[in-house]
Design brief:
The protein is mostly beta strands and 416 residues long. The protein has one domain: Beta Barrel (Porin). The chain is 8% helix and 49% strand. The protein has four helices and 20 strands. Strands 3-4-5-6-7-8-9-10-11-12-13-16-17-18-19-20 form a 16-stranded antiparallel β-barrel. Strands 1-2 form a two-stranded antiparallel ribbon. Strands 14-15 form a two-stranded antiparallel ribbon. The longest helix is centred in the N-terminal third of the chain and has 13 residues. It starts with a strand and ends with a strand. The relative contact order is 0.14. The N terminus is likely disordered.
């Protein structure tokens, strides 16, 4: 191990980190990615907002009102065949802004410990707006109102399906689950892999506090090679550079975090992906640690059936485990962590879908630090803007005094 002092800041790298830039899977992925960039780009991208930006029953009135107010000259042109004109005085070629919002409320019961606990809470209240400018530029803004904070602000160039550019603050492109919105998860919470490995809801293995899975940076992405009778895209890629310091923060070191993935869609709606992450995190104590990660993931969605499975592995120190007074690591300093899960969702009726999952996280990548959660969660979606969930969790946590306990959650989702 080597400790380097850089302008009063101690940078701690383990011996195996020296001289590394990308580990083998990421080298392979990087090579494939740059080869794919040579492919021709010929088609327009679909610029429809994703599920997180769907309008609710109140914002639909606002959006329809805006459509009536905005004159034809101010809205986007009727056909994409019309040549675009650029200039600071141009007012055409814009879409009507689409507003939306949702709230999630929760009741939770847990038998953990000597005394059971139960509580009502508001998980989140979000509002958002999205739209397009000059056909090819898509913007999105999302704000959290419960504990007011900026969540997302992005501008994307989406002219071609094969090559797109996104900048701003957004979800890290690591694992399938992190970028998903709560309405589509099927469970009352994200997997432990997503919570820890992307700093979504829990502390990151490197010591980074929860950042809602977000960071500030620049990302390129695209879908390549239409194949089969349905002309589905065979390859999807994403590659991004981030500050590495989380949401609403400037960078605090000289390094950037690089995250990328290559996904294959052998048949329509089945994706198999390899994800990689190379970065450096600097804690509040001024200690910088490397974080090397990879994940192997798969998902399938068809006819309301859902299957999702992911495994992720982390190598690197925890910045909080370094004692700056003695210049030594604390005993048992974490060097590795991993986790995996599988989720299956089965439709029963048009308004009832039942999800079950097996969810594991090992903070030291050892069986003695394993936390396993078995979930069963019926989803009752009575309207596109109204959904209820009941979830039972059986938890086996080998790191806790009370190894086995039960949890019961009831949640309500409303788009407004």
């Amino acid at each position: 191990m080597e400790i380097i002092e850089d302008r009063g800041r101690y940078v701690a790298f383990s011996d195996e980190d020296k001289g590394q830039f990308f580990w083998p899977p990421f080298k392979l992925m990087s090579f494939i990615f740059f080869c794919l960039l040579l492919s021709p780009s010929v088609s327009f991208a679909n610029t429809e907002p994703d599920d997180e930006y769907k309008e609710g029953f109140l914002t639909s009135f606002l959006n329809r009102g805006l459509q009536k107010i905005m004159t034809k000259a101010e809205t986007k042109s009727e056909t994409k065949d019309e040549p675009l004109r650029y200039g600071r005085n141009i007012t055409k070629y814009i879409s009507v802004p689409q507003f939306g919002g949702y709230v999630i409320g929760k009741y939770g019961y847990s038998s953990k410990g000597n005394v059971s606990t139960n509580s009502f809470e508001c998980r989140m209240v979000r509002i958002y707006v999205s739209g397009t400018i000059l056909r090819d530029f898509k913007y999105r803004v999302q704000v959290e109102l419960k504990n007011p904070a900026m969540r997302d602000y992005t501008l994307e160039w989406v002219r071609f399906k094969e090559f797109q550019i996104k900048g701003g603050q957004f979800k890290r492109c690591f694992t399938y689950e992190n970028p998903m919105n709560p309405w589509d998860l099927g469970l009352g919470n994200y997997s432990q892999v997503a919570q820890h490995m992307t700093a979504l809801l829990k502390d990151d293995p490197s010591g980074e506090t929860a950042q809602n899975g977000r960071d500030i940076g620049l990302q390129i992405q695209g879908d390549l090679f239409p194949v089969g009778k349905d002309r589905h895209r065979l390859i999807r890629y994403q590659a991004a550079v981030y500050n590495g310091n989380g949401q609403n923060k400037k960078d605090n070191n000289k390094q950037k975090d690089f995250i990328g993935n290559i996904q294959v869609q052998p048949i329509k709606d089945l994706y198999i992906g390899l994800f990689g992450w190379k970065g450096t995190y600097t804690g509040a104590n001024g200690i910088s640690v490397r974080r090397n990660r990879w994940a192997l993931c798969g998902k399938f969605e068809r006819k309301d059936w859902s299957v999702r499975a992911e495994y992720a592995h982390h190598t690197g120190r925890n910045a909080n485990d370094f004692d700056t007074e003695t210049m030594t690591w604390k005993e048992g300093s974490t060097r590795k962590a991993d986790g995996w899960y599988i989720v299956v969702g089965a439709p029963v009726t048009s308004w009832l879908k039942i999800y079950c999952s097996y969810d594991v996280y090992r903070k030291d990548a050892t069986w003695g630090t394993m936390k396993s959660i078995y979930n069963l969660c019926p989803n009752f979606q009575l309207h596109k803007n109204l959904m209820f969930q009941l979830q039972y969790n059986y938890v086996n946590d080998r790191t806790a005094t009370d190894h086995n306990y039960h949890e019961l959650w009831a949640q309500a989702y409303v788009r407004f």
